[in-house]
Amino acid sequence: GGRGGRMEDFSVDLDLDLSDLDITSGDLNFAELSEQLARVGHHKLIADAFRRASKGRGDAKGPGNMKEQAKDLEVTLRQVEVESIEGYVNESGNLQELHSQILECDGVLDSMEDLLGRFQSDLSEISSEIKHIQKESLNLNLKLKNRRALHEKLSVFADNMQIPPSLIDVILDSEVSSAEYLTSLQLLHKKLNFLRTSKEAQSSLAFQDVAPELSKLENKAVSKVKTFLLEQFSILRKPKTNIQIQQQNRLLRLKGFVSFIKQHNQVAYKEIRTNYTETVGNILLNHFRVYLSHVSSLEKNMAGKSDVVGSSDGGSASGTASAQSTLSGFFNSMKLSALNQDRKTSRSSQDNGKCFDLGDRGDILSKVGESAVVPHVAESQGVRLPCEQIFRSINKLLLDSSSSEFIFSTEFFRDQKVFQETMNEVIALISDHLNGWVQDVSDPLGLFLMIRINYSHQLIMQRRRLPCLDSYLDNVNMILWPKLKLALDNQLQSLNNAQVSLVKQAKGRSMGGNGRFVIDSRLAKTVKGITTRFADLLLSLMILNRDFNQGQLERSLERLRSTMEDLLLSVAKGIKQAAAQGGSKPGVSSSASFLVSNYGGVTQTWRENSDQLSSEVSQGGNQYGEEMLKHFEDLYTSNVSLYVEEELKGHFGDMIKFVEKLEETLALEGSSGDMTSEKALAKKIMDHFRGAWQDAIQELNTLVHADFSGVSEALAKEVLKAALTQLLLYYTRFVEVLKQMSPDLLKESVTIPSIMYEIKKFR
Description:
This protein folds into four domains: 165-264, no CATH class; 273-309 and 319-490, no CATH class; 513-646, no CATH class; 654-760, no CATH class. It has 26 helices and two strands. It has helices spanning 30-40, 44-57, 63-90, 92-160, 165-173, 179-197, 199-202, 207-235, 243-249, 255-264, 266-296, 320-330, 336-346, 375-380, 387-413, 417-438, 444-464, 470-506, 521-544, 551-582, 587-607, 610-618, 624-669, 676-708, 713-741, 752-760, and strands spanning 510-511, 517-518. It starts with 29 loop residues before the first helix and ends with a helix. 29% of the residues are buried.
C-alpha cells in the first residue's frame, strides 16, 4: 500500500505447472542469448543451474544435445524462480513487519517535520524580537548617554554655580596657614575659572547672583594670601637665617598660594615677586660683600708685577701699593685705609726665586668641587691663600647660591626671570670686583689656574643642567685670558730688556791665572736666576696645560722659549767676543760652558718632572711638553759636545788633529805609502800622551767642576763623563790608526783598560 496505508495479512500456496510453455516457439537469437548469459552468468543461481545441467547431461555433443541443454536450463531456471517465489512467500511475515515499521517511522518523521516547522516559525519570531530589542537597546543607550552628559554638565554647573558655606567660612575666617585653606583656594579657583570660561554659566540667571560673591571671595583670598606670603618673606631678614633651609623647608610648601595669586591678581603677584627679589637679593648681596671682605684679607701674593723672569735681582713681591690696588679692585665699596694693615700682614715672604714654581698649587684643580673657604676658620688657623684659592672660593659660593636660588625660584614662581631679578646685583658685584682685582694680578700661574677653575665651574653647571650662570662664566673667561696674555707678554718683555743689559755685562771679563777667560760671576748669577725662573714658569704652565690643551697658551710659551734662546745666544756671543778681544783661550769653550750651564739647568729641572710632562700623551693631551723637553735636551747635548771638543783640543789637540787627518788618509790611500814622518809624529804624540794623560784628566776634572759646580754637581759630573768618554773614543781611534800604520808603535802605549780605570775614579 501507499504511505500511511495498512497491508492485510495474506498467505499464498502456489502449485505451478509450466510444462506446456514452449520457450522455443519464437525465433531465437543465439548471439543475443549468449551475450545475456555472459552478463548474468556470474550470478550464483544461474551458475548453479549451469553446473547441474552439466552434471545431468554429461559430455554429450551435437545440435540435439544443445536443445536438450537449453531445455534443461529452462527447467532449472523455472525451478529457481519457483524457489525464489517460495522464499519470498516464506519471508512475507517479516516483510509485513518491516512494512509496518516503515509506516511507523514515516509517521514519526511526519511528526518531526511538523515540530520542526513550528520551531522554525518560532525562531523567526524570536529573531524579529531580538532585532527589535537591539534597536530598543541602542535607543536606550543613546538616551542614557545623553542623560549622563546632561547630568554631568548639570552637576558641574550646579557645583560651580553654588557657593558652599564651608568655603565662605574658610576663606573669610580661617588662617592662611591652616591645612584646609589651600584646598579652599583650589576650589575657589575652580569656580572662578568656570564662571570666566563657560558661556553657559555667563548666560545663566544664576551668574548675576554668584559672580559678585565669588569675586568678593577672590579679593579677600588674594589679600590674605599676599599678607601671609609677605610675612613669610620677612622671616628671611632675621639675622643668622639660612635662606636655603627656609626655602626648602617652609616656602616651597606655599607655592600653591603663589600660583593662586599669579592667576587671579597680577598686581599682587608683582608686589610679592618684587618683595621676594629685593629681600633675598639684598640678603645675598650683603652676605657676599661680607664674604669678599673677609676672604680677601687672607690673600697671599705669590708673584707681583716686579716678579718677572728677566729680573736682574730675582724680582720682589709686590709692596703696599700693589696691595692697595688689589684691594681696591676687590672691594671698591670699602675704605682702603681701614684694611691696609690687614693687607700688609696677608702678604707672604714668598721666596723670589720660587715665585714661578708650581709646587702643590696645581692640587686645587682636583678640589674644585670642595666647599668654599670659611674665612674666620682659615684666619684662626693662620692660613693664607693664593689668588686662585680666593677665586675658587668666591665662585664656588656663587655657583652653589645661584644653583639653589635658580631651582627654588623656578619651582616656586614658575618664572626664570625671578632668578635674574634676585641675583643680578650679586653677579654684577662679583663681576665688577673680579674685573678690578684681576687687573692687578700679575701671577701667570694664578691666572691660568683661575682659567682652569672657571672651566671646571662651567662643567659643573653643565652637569647640573643649569644655564643661569652661563653669561657670567663666559665673561670671566673674557676677563682672564687677556690678562694672562698680558702677564706672559710682561715676562717676554722682561727677557727682551734683560738681553740688552746682559750682553753689555758679557763684554766685561776677568782673567784666570792661566790666562783662561772667566765669566763675570754677577753675570753668571743673574743669568742663572733668569734661567731658573724661565724653567719653572714654562714647566708649571705646561703641567697645568697637559690635559687642557690650550693652543693659545702654547703660542705664548713658544714666544717665551724663542726669546729665552735669543737671550742666551746673544750673551754667549758677547762672552765669545770678550774672550777673543782679551786674547784669552779658549773663548769657544767659555761661551759653550755658559750655554751648557743654562740649558742644563732647564733640562735638569724638567727631567725631574718628566713624568708629568709625558703624561700629556697618556692622558689624551698633546705632545707639546715632551717636544719642548726634547728641544732643550738637544740644545744641551750639542753644546756639551762643543764644550767637550774645545776642552779636549786644549789638552790633546795634536792627537785629535792627527787622528782625524790619518783616518782620512788611510781611508783613501791605505798604509802602503811612505809614512815615515807620520810615524815619527805618532811616536811623539804617544810619548807626550803617556806622560801627560793622567795630569790632563785631573786638570779637565778641575776645569769642568769650576765651570759647572756652581750650577749643580750633577751637571758637572755629567759633562765630565761626556768629556772623558769622548777622550777614550779619541784615544781608541788613535790606537786603531797606529795599528794600521805600524803595530810597533803600540809597544809603549797606554792601555785602554788603564785609562778606563783612571776614568772610573772621577765618576
